Amino acid sequence: MADPKQPENGAVELGTPNASVPTGTMSTRRLRSEDYNDYSSTDVTPEGSPPDGMNGFAHPESYQRFGETNGTTWYQTLIHLLKGNIGTGLLGLPLAVKNAGILLGPLSLLVMGIVAVHCMGILVKCAHHFCNRFQKQFVDYGGAVMYGLEATPSACLRTHAIWGRRVVGLFLIITQLGFCCVYFVFLADNIRQVVSAANGTTNDCSSNRTVVMTPTMDSRLYMLSILPFVVLLTFIQNLKVLSIFSMLANMAMLVSLVVIYQYIVRDIPDPSNLPLAAAWKTYPLFFGTAIFAFEGIGVVLPLENKMKKPRQFPVILYVGMTIVTILYISLSVLGYLRFGADIQGSITLNLPNCWLYQAVKLLFSFGIFFTYAVQFYVPAEIIIPPLVARVSERWGWLVNLLLRMALVCVTCVLAILIPRLDLVISLVGSVSSSALALIFPPLLEIATYYSEGMHPLVIVKDVAISLFGFVGFVVGTYEALVELVAPVATVVNGTTVLVQ
User: Residues 121-145: pLDDT tens digits?
Assistant: First the structure.
């Protein structure tokens, strides 16, 4: 991703690899590979440079993942890894467990977490292989897939290897814009519920009582009301400014999660009436929501590349994803146990109508609002610059803003067409997250190492994981679309009577 700053002291701006670089500059800026565009993460862009320029990479046996004095520590990397995996998908997991069953759901989450972490490890291993082989300092996800196709015995795949990068880029765009669609629905549903319950909101959070929700606008009208503010937010193109908003969003969501946890662990009813395994027809919806939550594979390579001591990353990856998996399973199980069949697309929609929990909904919505700009930055940087380059410099700024407005409107329209939060999450997870997290990494391992010799069991394992991801992709997408065509009688977060 291009650095928004201008070149200083003779340094070469990212994206102009053929320009000459003075020797003195090499020690202050990290030299990236000529084909690297880091669209995987917006707040973990590597900076700095390896000591002594490229001298340390003269021989493959001397190659190692480089670290920097100004790189991230293990603790900072762990925090970034947690941030990259914890979002709105977490709040939808209690409903996902309902779609799988109180026993089958947590077990499936555990298995999916193990497989997802294994695929992350595969991606890191293949990237190391190509960095070693081509003497590159960094290979991103798309680059790894491209080099993997070039390493296959098939002449056809080698000829069209560039399509590997393009396909990964396409799925990254779909995934990130899908996140943005989810954010629109989440914001509309939560704000709508706060407004509906405003007249009945009290300071008493412990009483069991029936609250009549005041009729208000349709959630789709709330999306249109939010649209102008989101458009203005995406006009901010400076990553440093966005990082401030990202930090505020993270703090808001952390506080909200703590309050949610302390509520759902209290007064859990008898779970004996909850099914151990739900109907298989709803299991694909569980798959889509679960893989949506686990889709943090895009941040793995940038995080590792930015570390002071990259050799520590495998341990950090397994520790971090263990924490994430425990968080996912605990919130999903406790949320389903606490609310049972009444669980909604986001657990925040089940919170009581007292000011404390209404504040939690608004606080989490505040965090999601600013997270939209961070997630939007990724597809915007892929789509907009090539189009702006086609017009004169005089009109470039206007075209840039108009394109940003158009992309935001597209996500808003898609959210309006699918105003059910649970189905949006499941659909995005099934369509794009399954490909990036489950289908591509095992196939990449086969493409990378097949010509060098692979154990048959490793090939069988990789094929099985990819088939699992592909089946989830097809069936999960189909079931989500069926639900959209024939929605249930009661719309999620409808204007109904809620018993707290």
Answer: 999 999 989 988 888 888 889 899 9
> 443: which residues sit within 8 A by CB, 6+ positions away?
462, 466
- The predicted structure's pLDDT at residue 500: 36
- C-alpha–C-alpha distance, residues 491 and 495, integer Å: 9
DSSP code of residue 255? H
Residue 117 CB contacts under 8 Å (≥ 6 apart), including other chains = 317, 318, 321, 325
**What is the tens place of the pLDDT at every residue in 332-350?**
999 999 998 889 888 988 8
Q: Are 48 and 31 contacting, i.e. CB atoms less than 8 angstroms apart? A: no
- The rounded distance, in Å, linking the Cα atoms of 136 and 33 is 6
For residue 446, give the 3-state DSSP assignment.
helix
pLDDT of residue 41: 40
CA distance 323 to 341: 27
Q: How far apart are CA 269 and CA 298, in angstroms?
A: 39
Which stretches of the chain score pLDDT less than 50? 1-65, 207, 489-500
Place of tokens 């949320």: 335
Closest CA to 90 of 347, 287, 296: 347
Please report, rounded to a whole number, the percentage of residues in the chain having pLDDT higher than 70.
Answer: 80
| Cα–Cα nearest to 411, from 239, 231, 242 | 231
- Average pLDDT of the residues of the chain: 79
Q: Which residues pair with 497 in a beta bridge?
A: 212
In this prediction, residue 40 carries a pLDDT of 41
202 φ, ψ (degrees, to nearest 5):
-130, 180
Please tell me the distance from the alpha carbon of residue 46 to that of residue 303, in angstroms, as a whole number.
Answer: 8
pLDDT value for 214? 64
- One-letter amino acid at 189 equals D
Q: Are 176 and 192 in contact (CB under 8 A)?
A: no
DSSP string, 172-186: HHHHHHHHHHHHHHH
- DSSP characters over 77-92: HHHHHHHHH-SHHHHT
Identify whether the C-beta of residue 176 lies closer than 8 Å to the C-beta of residue 374.
no
